[in-house]
Automatic annotation (TrEMBL), chain A:
The gene is tusE. Pfam families: DsrC. The active site is at 101 (cysteine persulfide intermediate). GO terms for biological process: tRNA wobble position uridine thiolation. It comes from Flagellimonas ochracea. This is TusE/DsrC/DsvC family sulfur relay protein.
TrEMBL record, chain B:
InterPro entries: DsrE2-like, DsrEFH-like. PANTHER family: CONSERVED WITHIN P. AEROPHILUM (PTHR34655), PEROXIREDOXIN FAMILY PROTEIN (PTHR34655:SF2). This is Peroxiredoxin family protein. Pfam families: DrsE_2.
C-alpha cells in the first residue's frame, strides 16, 4: 500500500514498514519518528545507522545484539525508543520489523 | 500502532528446570519488546534461576518428560540430564538465545522487574548475598498481587 510521508507517496506494508529502502531518507525518517513521538537526536541517528548496517549485511537483529553492539546499551535503547524499541527503531530506520522472538 | 489490550504481564516462575525459566524469560522479554510492562516473581524451585551459584547450572528434566522421547530409566542414568542440557544449550546459542545470567541482565535493563518470594526464600534459608544483584526486592504474594495495578494486567503461573 501507499502512504503519504513528507508529501511523498511511499510503499509500506500494513504495519507501516517501508517496502523499498531506496525511498528512505532523513526527511522520511524524521516524519516517521514524529508519528512515533520520537524526536531524533545524534544518538538516535547513530542507532539507526547501526540497524541499517546490520540489515544490509543480512545479520538478524535482536535485543542481545543491541547489548553487544557497542553503540548503545539496552537501558538507553528503551529510553530512546519508548514502547517497543526494536519495533519502533526499525520502523524509523526504514527496514523490516525483526521476526525473532528474542 | 499495536492493538493489544495486554498492558502488563506478571509471571510467577515456580519451577527450576531450564525450559520453564526460558519460557518465563522469553515471554517477559517479548512483552517488553512490545511495549508491555513485565514482572517476574520467583518462588519455590524457580528461585534456582536467581541464585548466583545455581543459575548457570539449571537442567532440562529428562525423567518424567515424555517429550524427551527416551526411556525414563535411561533418562535417570548419571550424566544424561547434563548431556541433554548441553545439547539444548547448543541449539539455543545458535538462535542467539542468551544464557540465564545474561538473560536476567537483559530483562533488568529492559525494565522488567524481578522479585523473590519471601516465603520460599525463608524456607530455603537463602540470604541476600545468595541472590543476583538485579533482583528488585523480596515480596509476599500479596505484595505481588498489588503490582497488578492497572487495566489489562495478566498473571501467569509457570
Amino acid at each position: 500500500m501507499k502512504k503519504l510521508i513528507a508529501n511523498r507517496e511511499i510503499d509500506v506494508n500494513e504495519e507501516g514498514y517501508l517496502l523499498d529502502f531506496k525511498q528512505w531518507d532523513r526527511e522520511i525518517c524524521e516524519c516517521i519518528a514524529g508519528e512515533c513521538n520520537v524526536v531524533m537526536t545524534e544518538k538516535h541517528w547513530e542507532v539507526i545507522a547501526y540497524l541499517q548496517d546490520k540489515h544490509h549485511k543480512e545479520e538478524p537483529l535482536s535485543i542481545r545484539g543491541i547489548k553487544r553492539s557497542g553503540v548503545i546499551n539496552i537501558k538507553e535503547f528503551y529510553n530512546l525508543f519508548p514502547g517497543g524499541p526494536l519495533k519502533k527503531s526499525t520502523l524509523i530506520a526504514g527496514i523490516p520489523k525483526p521476526k525473532s522472538c528474542i | 500502532m499495536s492493538g493489544t489490550k495486554v498492558k502488563k504481564m506478571l509471571f510467577i516462575l515456580s519451577k527450576g528446570t531450564i525450559e520453564n525459566a526460558y519460557a518465563a524469560f522469553v515471554m517477559a522479554n517479548g512483552a517488553r519488546m512490545e511495549g508491555i510492562e513485565a514482572e517476574i516473581f520467583f518462588t519455590f524451585f524457580g528461585l534456582e534461576a536467581i541464585q548466583k551459584k545455581k543459575l548457570e547450572h539449571m537442567h532440562v528434566a529428562t525423567v518424567g518428560n515424555p517429550a524427551m522421547h527416551i526411556p525414563t530409566m535411561l533418562g535417570g542414568l548419571p550424566g544424561v540430564e547434563a548431556l541433554a542440557t548441553k545439547m539444548m544449550k547448543k541449539e539455543m546459542e545458535k538462535l542467539d538465545m542468551p544464557p540465564i545470567g545474561e538473560f536476567l541482565e537483559i530483562l533488568s535493563d529492559s525494565g522488567c522487574k524481578l522479585w523473590g518470594c519471601k516465603l520460599a526464600i525463608d524456607m530455603f534459608h537463602l540470604e541476600q548475598e545468595d541472590l543476583i544483584e538485579e533482583l528488585d526486592g523480596i515480596l509476599t504474594i500479596g505484595d505481588f498481587y498489588n503490582r497488578a495495578d492497572q487495566e489489562g494486567t495478566h498473571l501467569l503461573f509457570i
